[in-house]
Amino acid sequence: MAPKSDLFPHVLDVLEELNQDYDLAVITNGNADVFHPYVGLGQYFDFAIRADQVGVAKPSADVFSMAAKKAGLDFSQIIHVGDHPIDDVLGATNVGAKSIWFNRHGARRWADEWGSRSNAEVHSLLELPSAISSLAL
């Protein structure tokens, strides 16, 4: 079934590529349901943790702990990709996971007050597979 939601350019191709080599999961502070038929992305993900369902949101260590436990991984084995400097980058960094900042089109500059920088930064989803590959070594 083709997605009925508006998706970022190249998302299906990139998810297809990543899904061949990695186990993928979602941690969202919103109510995005990748498994809903209108979104059409569920086949790429092993699970999703939604803040509205678990009662805790990023950047809390608790939500990252839930994901690590569900995936059966240590934090050091996790690469978290997100667009929010605090919720995603700092949240992942604070628990010892690696992070990739999805700074779409390079629209924002890193602010020192945000704290630790991400391990990598991408401006397009097309850059994601190589960024993940370089961190997964």
Description:
This protein is an alpha/beta fold. β3 (79-82), α4 and β4 (98-102) form a beta-alpha-beta unit. Helices cover 33% and strands 15% of the residues. The protein contains five helices and five strands. 20% of the residues are buried. The radius of gyration is 14 Å and the shape is globular. The strands form two sheets. A three-stranded parallel sheet has the order 3-4-5, with helices on both faces. Strands 1-2 form a two-stranded parallel sheet. The model has no long low-confidence stretch (mean pLDDT 92).
For the termini, the CA-CA separation is 34 Å
Instruction: Note poorly predicted spans.
Output: none
User: What is the helix/strand order?
Assistant: HEEHHEHEEH
Helix percentage? 25-40%
How much strand? 5-15%
Please state the structural category.
alpha/beta
Q: Give the strand line-up of the largest sheet.
A: 3-4-5
Number of strands: 5
Number of helices: 5
- Rg is 14 Å
Q: Mean pLDDT across all residues, rounded? A: 92
How many strands, which pairing sense, and closed or not: the largest β-sheet? 3 strands, parallel
Shape: globular
